[in-house]
Write a structure and sequence with these properties.
seven-stranded mixed β-sheet, five-stranded mixed β-sheet, 16 helices, globular, binds NADPH dihydro-nicotinamide-adenine-dinucleotide phosphate, binds 2-oxoglutaric acid, NAD(P)-bd_dom_sf, Glu/Leu/Phe/Val/Trp_DH_dimer, glutamate dehydrogenase (NADP+) activity, NAD_bind_Glu_DH
Length: 458
């Protein structure tokens, strides 16, 4: 009798989820990345909805998939040749149930509303997983900082903030960096915000420079956090990073500090990439050289082989997944691992995958990993270290003090361990032990959903 009732409630939950998903597609046509992110979450919520029907009431899911506010704006600026350029700016304030909107800003030519919505939606659950009081949001522009002078980046960024400042604030919405937005861009944004508002509201942005209110360890946090998370998965199997071969995609902020921590833990990182191609260095990546090329000189990764003749550069970035490795850390961009790449990794013996980037694996790729018993750390959990330390930066700004690198790193480490433990626990509780995709989604969802139910229908 109980089994029949359980099956009926599972079926009712699955049908409800499907109906919500169909409405999302109809209402948000052509936003494929947003559809993908919503589908992954909704499908994994079926067991929790079946067990607790309260989450199917008050239009909770329908409200959850609709952003609280979407802001789109014109960003005019003048290039070095004196020509007027016009880009499009976005901020999606998705959900503030547990705290002010929090999430990065992305500058990349591929940015459109669907990308910002997928990132903002993911951010809701990721931020909830950190256990800290931060809601979900994301922003960006189709501006391409590559090949632009510092002055062009400054003029664009000032114009972007001249509109964005109306919608953000330390208790309202706190942006940070993402692809194409690092310390330089955050500095220009902060300078313009301060100039317009006429005061030093430190907590309005995170990822700030240490000399004007930033937090130690924020630069390292996403990459380090991802490696801490994967290390928890490995420890549970009685192993670690020591002596493992690791492939890391990208060579930006997340990749560089994932490489650093993996190396510190005794791994050999043999490859990394940028959007043009990848390098394979069988002796192990020279991280000092990568930092010089990418963080200081802003050059292409292909330059690496000029200094390291034993390394090989290959044009095109997807080939990086054909390199045999024990651990793969996709840290570049969305959907960089498709089904084919996942199968290649599995047939070459990959044991663990930790998603440093947001949604780097397609739904089909995730299925391949899970079906083949690969330890899989999903993005919402594995890359939450960055936003967690951003929330710690907000705390330090409010208290008007700064913690040491070691203090913040220890807090980051604890947060990643808790996210892992809570994801494992939720996966077990809802009948899919070891499936951290479902575990992380449910653990994040429950926190947000309970807060939304407390607030009434808003
Ligand atoms: N920064 C953070 O704290 C956090 C970032 N993330 C996610 O991590 C990922 C990387 O971000 P971050 O390191 O900050 O960004 P960066 O801009 O610092 O670096 C991005 C890296 O990815 C490469 N890349 C970008 N787009 C593509 C593409 N279409 N194909 C292949 N490679 C590409 C870039 O190469 P190129 O230089 O050639 O463009 C670069 O090497 C993103 O998914 C981001 O959303 C997640 C949590 C927090
Ligand atoms: O630090 C933050 O606020 C946001 C980081 C981010 O954009 C992300 O987690 O994807």
């Amino acid at each position: 009798m109980t089994i029949i009732r359980t099956e009926q409630s599972q079926q009712a939950a699955a049908e409800y989820v499907q109906s919500v998903f169909e409405k999302v597609i109809a209402r948000n046509p052509h936003e494929n990345e947003f559809h993908q992110a919503v589908k992954e979450i909704l499908d994994s919520l079926v067991p929790v909805l079946a067990k607790h029907p309260k989450y199917m009431q008050q239009g909770l899911l329908e409200r959850l998939v609709e952003p609280e506010r979407v802001i789109t704006f014109r960003v005019p600026w003048v290039d070095d040749a004196g020509n007027v350029q016009v880009n499009r700016g976005f901020r999606v304030q998705f959900n503030s149930a547990i705290g002010p909107y929090k999430g990065g800003i992305r500058f990349h030519p591929s940015v459109y509303l669907g990308i910002v919505k997928f990132l903002g939606f993911e951010q809701i659950f990721k931020n909830a997983l950190t256990g800290l009081p931060i809601g979900g949001g994301k922003g960006g522009s189709d501006f391409d900082p590559k090949g632009k002078s510092d002055n062009e980046v400054m003029r664009f960024t000032q114009s972007f903030m001249t509109e964005l400042y109306k919608y953000i604030g330390p208790d309202a919405d706190v942006p940070a960096g993402d692809i194409g937005v690092g310390g330089r861009e955050i500095g220009y944004m902060f300078g313009q915000y301060k100039r317009i508002r006429g005061g030093h509201e430190g907590g309005v942005l995170t990822g700030k420079g240490i000399h004007y209110g930033g937090s130690l360890t924020r630069t390292e946090a996403t990459g380090y956090g991802c490696v801490y998370f994967v290390n928890e998965m490995l420890h549970a199997q009685g192993t670690s990073f020591e002596g493992k071969r690791v492939v890391v995609s990208g060579s930006g902020n997340v990749s560089i500090y994932a490489i650093e921590k993996a190396q510190q833990l005794g791994a050999t990182v043999v490859a990394c990439s940028d959007s043009n191609g990848y390098i394979y260095d069988p002796e192990g990546i020279d991280l000092k050289l990568v930092k010089q090329l990418k963080e200081v000189n802003r050059l292409r990764i292909s330059e690496y082989i000029q200094e390291r003749p034993g390394a090989i550069y290959t044009e095109g970035c997807s080939g990086i997944w054909s390199i045999p490795c024990d651990i793969a850390l996709p840290c570049a961009t969305q959907n960089e691992i498709d089904e084919h790449a996942a199968q290649l990794l599995v047939s070459n013996g990959v044991k663990a995958v930790g998603e440093g980037a947001n949604m780097p694996s397609t739904l089909q790729a995730i299925e391949v990993f899970l079906d083949n018993g690969v330890l899989f750390g999903p993005a919402k959990a594995a890359n939450a270290g960055g936003v967690a330390v951003s929330a710690l930066e907000m705390s330090q700004n409010s208290m008007r003090l700064s913690w040491s690198f070691e203090e913040v790193d220890a807090k980051l480490h604890d947060i990643m361990k808790n996210i892992y433990a809570n994801s494992v626990k939720a996966a077990e509780e809802y009948g899919v032990p070891g499936n951290l995709v479902v575990g992380a989604n449910i653990a994040g969802f429950v926190r947000v959903a309970d807060a939304m139910l407390s607030h009434g229908i808003v």
